[in-house]
């Protein structure tokens, strides 16, 4: 018997989502490598297609891309691993120096008749916590990458099957004439978003690493990788990635150098995020700041460090899927940013 009541339908959908999320949480050991494999496969798709334009066989292009990923991954893992080991050894010294800088700030506040209990604040706000969280995040990512062989094998199979996947979706959804445009839009939007975001994030991390290297900040490669990863989280990701680097510069050189590091991060993220990215990304894929923050918490709880990294791409996939059906489009509107609503608001005026 079909369910007619809207309330009953909503409750059924809500209960189904609870069961699905509980299953994903229970099977996170399997789901996390699968999601990461899909993310890597989609990001590599445009490079495979670019090689295909020059008539490079698909098996050869996939082999070249996988070799590139393995070589780059091992080189980066070795350098970052060494930086993390040195950083953890020096953590007590960094913590002590940061506490000293914090004491200087408290003393300066007292000159303005603002009295703050240093010991009480330090007991709640550990100065080294931000730097520890950064290395713990990368350590969590390293734990996932321990299944590197499984992830690479899954990526290879996904890349080989990617060419026929749109046709399979049309057939599976009873669309033999290939007229369901929202399926094609869904695949193209996700592919375009992840590919462009990956390139932008790579250049953001590269520029941040070069700036930190020029200023002589310790463990610059570690903070560059962090900038690359957190750039997948718009609005707040660049701020989170900048905090450990600024604190490191504060420990090493003082407030002046820390200000230069912060200024460099602001310039890099402003140019990459507000100038270059919108030019290639276009509009219609925006999420509200609140949704970005809540998705970071939700996917981080569900999938751990990888969930935090993929929080926005996963939410973007959900948003695009909701937009593809008329009855669920209102949910996609709730996830959208104000800029994304402008075309929707102009549509009725055009029709009248």
Layout of strands and helices, then pairs:
Blueprint: H1 6-26, H2 28-53, H3 58-111, H4 118-124, H5 129-144, H6 148-161, H7 165-172, H8 181-215, H9 220-230, H10 237-252, H11 255-281, H12 289-303, H13 305-309, H14 311-323, H15 329-335, H16 338-351
Helix pairs in contact: 2-3, 2-6, 2-8, 3-6, 3-10, 8-9, 8-11, 8-14, 9-10, 10-11, 12-14, 14-15
Name the features.
single chain, 352 residues, mainly alpha, globular, disordered C terminus
Write a short abstract of this structure.
The radius of gyration is 23 Å and the shape is globular.
Task: Describe this structure as you would to a colleague.
- The protein has 352 residues and is mostly helical.
- The protein has 16 helices and no strands.
- The model is unreliable at 343-352 (pLDDT under 50).
Mean pLDDT: 76
Q: Beta-strand percentage?
A: under 5%
Structural classification:
mainly alpha
Task: Give the total of beta strands.
Answer: 0
Measured distance between first and last alpha carbons: 41 Å
- What's the total helix number? 16
Helical content (DSSP H or I, runs of 4+): over 70%
Flag low-confidence runs.
Answer: 343-352
Q: What sequence of helices (H) and strands (E) makes up the elements?
A: HHHHHHHHHHHHHHHH
- Main pleated-sheet profile: none
As a whole number of angstroms, the C-alpha radius of gyration is: 23 Å
Q: What is the global morphology?
A: globular
């Amino acid at each position: 018997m079909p369910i007619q009541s809207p309330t009953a339908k909503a409750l059924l959908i809500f209960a189904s989502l609870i069961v699905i999320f509980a299953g994903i949480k229970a099977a996170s050991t399997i789901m996390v490598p699968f999601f990461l494999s899909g993310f890597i496969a989609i990001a590599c798709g445009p490079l495979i297609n670019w090689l295909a334009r020059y008539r490079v066989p698909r098996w050869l292009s996939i082999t070249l891309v996988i070799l590139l990923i393995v070589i780059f991954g091992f080189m980066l893992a070795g350098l970052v691993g060494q930086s993390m080991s040195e950083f953890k050894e020096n953590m007590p010294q960094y913590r002590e120096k940061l506490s000293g800088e914090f004491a200087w700030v408290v003393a300066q506040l007292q000159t303005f008749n603002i009295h703050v209990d240093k010991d009480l604040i330090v007991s709640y706000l550990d100065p080294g916590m931000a730097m520890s969280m950064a290395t713990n995040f990368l350590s969590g990512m390293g734990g996932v990458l321990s299944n590197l062989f499984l992830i690479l094998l899954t990526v290879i199979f996904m890349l080989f099957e990617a060419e026929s996947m749109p046709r399979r979706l049309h057939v599976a959804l009873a669309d033999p004439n290939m007229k369901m445009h929202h399926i094609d839009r869904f695949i193209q939007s996700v592919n375009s978003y992840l590919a462009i975001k990956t390139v932008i994030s790579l250049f953001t991390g590269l520029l941040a690493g070069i700036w930190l290297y020029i200023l002589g900040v310790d463990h610059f490669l570690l903070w560059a990788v962090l900038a690359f990863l957190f750039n997948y989280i718009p609005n707040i990701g660049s701020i989170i990635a900048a905090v450990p680097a600024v604190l490191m510069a504060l420990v090493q050189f003082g407030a002046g150098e820390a200000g230069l590091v912060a200024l460099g991060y602001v310039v890099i993220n402003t140019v990459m995020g507000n100038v270059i990215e919108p030019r290639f990304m276009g509009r219609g894929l925006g999420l509200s700041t609140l949704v970005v923050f809540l998705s970071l918490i939700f996917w981080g709880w569900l999938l751990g460090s990888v969930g935090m990294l993929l929080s926005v791409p996963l939410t973007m996939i959900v948003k695009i899927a909701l937009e593809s059906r008329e009855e669920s489009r209102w949910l996609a509107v709730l996830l959208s940013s104000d800029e994304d609503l402008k075309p929707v608001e102009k549509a009725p005026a055009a029709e009248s």
